[in-house]
Amino acid sequence: MIEFTEHIIACNGIKLKEFADDPRYLELQHLEDSKGWNVNLRLNPFVTKIYKLSNRLKDLLEIAGYVFAADRKTYRGKPDDLEYHSWSRAFDFHINVRDLAFWKRKDVQEMLENALVFMSGDHSYKFNFYKATEDFPNSIFDTEKFEIQYPEKLKVALFSGGIDSLAGAIELLETTDSEICLVSHQSGQPGTVMTQRIIFEDLKKLYPARCTHYKFHCSLHGIQAKEETQRTRSFLYCSTAFAIAKTYKQNCIYVYENGITSLNFAETQDLINARSSRTTHPQTLSKLEELFTLIAEEDFDIYNPYLFKTKTDVVEVIKNYDKLDFLDNTVSCSATRNKKRNTTHCGECSQCIDRRFAVYAAEVENEDENGIYNFDFLRDDLLENDIKKRLTDYIRLANRWAKQDLDGWWDERSLEILEILDYIEGVSDADKMKVLYNLCYKHSQNIEKAIKRMRDLYDSPLSPVRPNSFFNLIIGPREYLKEVSIKKEETPTEIEIPSKQLKKYAKEACEALIKAKKITQVLNETKTNKSISSLVIGELKRKRFKVTARNERTISDYFRKFVLQLKKDKNGNLLVIDNHQKN
């Protein structure tokens, strides 16, 4: 059986001497006067009195900063590594905190760990908390003034400088009389800093006394990042926005991300785990809501008003409010390196591709092509296999959705859909599925419209054929019509379960289901009603374990014959009892 390498992360002054020579051991420190300083963590003061921040919120910001730094410093593997364990990591954090009693609570740790595992695609997160002996040093706070004028009308929204967050900011400013606080994470990339500043300054001119910009700086210092996927960035982002909202007595924040990006259905099955991003997935935001509710000790909400919009819909929000002048200042690109000077987009990553198709579908391409793309797949030759595959997979997914009815779409995507249904609003699962299906179908129509417009503009039948063009290599031969099977669970990445440990893994899977509130009461297993084993088998498969037909029968027998049994203790807590365990 494959074992996951556990990375031991000691933070803010903690030193674990027993692991000093272990290559898995990493010390992270944000104190700038410390010898081991390797993390930049800087805050704008809230108004002029930073101590309006509670100790619990200070702890949260440090935890989020260290998780993000460890994520960047710990390599997942090559993008073409197929094995689950190559991309899925295990972390063991050791962190000093001020509100020790709160962070040591079992429910808090479980919620924190569950949220991070889901959003990152990693195997596990474990936290060990210790009592902090000092507060934030003054050096952590910038001198730049940050002040909310009208806190009673405040709305806090995440702001990356991309199309979606810009559209959300414009829509809030156009449809409410609220003061908008735009929260940004800045990691030291000068292009990102400049993008956010330019857009904010333009918004401030258009909407005087309506906008403030809160910048949270967190990056590695003096060491090179090993991992660029940044799947835990949304935890850092949302935690910062949450801290601001609570400081100003607000009980919600806004996250603007189109539904196709948020739901992030895999284009091909090699996008398992962290390769298929879940940073704004409804389940990620729901788990963060639950964590923030525990921290705040009152209900807290995270809204994504664009969950049921396509990227084209979002571009049309900007178009409808006549703010297209902003468009080429926004940055959607995920690549942080290897771009020519004066270009802001690589033009090759999935985010750039999605953006290009959206602006063509919305018929606003002239406002988006002022030299911002390092590579232009419509004008440049497709010489690299990676970009050809990315474009083909993107169009193939849209083509599949265009052809599928609701039943076919469900049959192919059921595992991904099941991870969504409990976390979106709707009267019934059937209604929710219809809304999701309609979103996917609308996306396919947007892509078809974009391709037609691209052909009209760049593929005249009277023009000479370019052998390596997008139109000659992909559109003309209809490469995207060639079927590539989307395997569900029968993949070479599955982990074998030794027969002698099957009961142990079944018990652990059942306990995980109880922890996740997927099992909330005592259930009975029979030959015809496999109420427990079906859930346990599904959980094992979700974790990429190989479960044979024989394993399935054995697991059912465990619960049917009370080898494993669900019981409640005297306090009403649901437990999994191994009745054959040797004392």
Quick overview of this protein structure:
By secondary structure, the protein is of the alpha/beta class. The protein is built from 18 helices and 12 strands.
Portion of residues in helices?
40-55%
Sheet having the most strands:
4 strands, parallel
Strand order of the largest sheet: 2-1-4-5
CATH architecture of the largest domain: 3-Layer(aba) Sandwich
How many domains?
Answer: 4
CATH topology of the largest domain: Rossmann fold
**What is the terminal separation in angstroms?**
26 Å
Q: Name the CATH homologous superfamily of the largest domain.
A: HUPs
Using only CA atoms, what is the Rg? Answer: 25 Å
Number of strands: 12
How many distinct helices?
18
- Overall body shape: globular
Poorly predicted regions: 45-51, 79-85, 138-143, 224-228, 269-275, 487-492
Briefly note the structural class of the backbone: alpha/beta
Q: What's the rounded overall pLDDT mean?
A: 84
Strand content: 5-15%
**For the record, what CATH class of the largest domain applies?**
Alpha Beta
Order of helices and strands: EEEHHEHHEEHEHEHEHHEHHHHHHHHHEE
